[in-house]
Amino acid sequence: MKKVIKVGLWMLLMLFFFILGTNIWVVQSTKDLIYQPENIPRNDVALVLGTSKRTVEGKPNRFFVERMNTAASLHSSQRIKHILVSGDNRTRYYNEPRDMLHALGDLNIPEEDISLDFAGLRTLDSVVRCKEVFGQTRVTIVTQQFHCYRSLFIANYLDMNAIAVSADDGGPIGNSLAFREVLARTVAVLDLYVLQRKPKYLGEEIALPINN
What angle do the packed helices 96-106 and 62-76 form, to 10 degrees? Predict the structure, then answer.
């Protein structure tokens, strides 16, 4: 019994250090590519990663609001020309890209400057599809800072020339979300380097209407 406990403890310890090591790798390899909105370099396209418009309690989701405001600000300041919104479209009643389109329209972003990716089911799907379907290798990723690291890590793996902008307003993200993101970074490493997972949907290439 003591031997079983000892083996179990060693396995837990190894798992802890694996999670710690993968998180250090993800963060350290991408931290210099994250900017604040006011000093981010110009790019043609922003990839805005989807999230629910509302929380499970039915309240407005501040992460959604922050991403929309940041994307609109980048467009208004001419730091980007076109916005690709990528998110989940699981049912007729839950449509992240459509919600983002409407929110950006309310912020005076012309509809012709927005393209929708309805198959961004996961962060990996959104980033891979940005390159493989929409043909973009140079992008500005818009999301919260805790999410920027993982998004950029995936983009780096794909040899994309990506930077990210922190859409945070300084509010706390909560222990539960922080813990999930720690695990998600480890899963991203496994997805890319071990499992070599692909997006659920790819399909034909779609050209973005970017005006030069």
Answer: 50
209 located within any domain: no
The total of structural domains in the chain comes to 1
Instruction: Check if the beta carbon of residue 120 is closer than 8 Å to that of residue 129.
Output: yes
pLDDT digits (tens, 9 = 90+) for 149-160: 999 999 999 999
d(CA 26, CA 5): 32
Checking if the pLDDT of 7 tops 80, the result is no
Within a domain: 210: no
> Is the overall model pTM greater than 0.70, yes or no?
yes
How much is the mean pLDDT over the chain? 93
* Residue 159's CATH number: 3.40.50.620
**Cα–Cα nearest to 166, from 71, 76, 101, 78:** 71
Q: Is the dihedral of CA 150, 151, 152, 155 positive or negative?
A: positive
Task: Tell me which residue range forms the domain holding 19.
Answer: 2-195
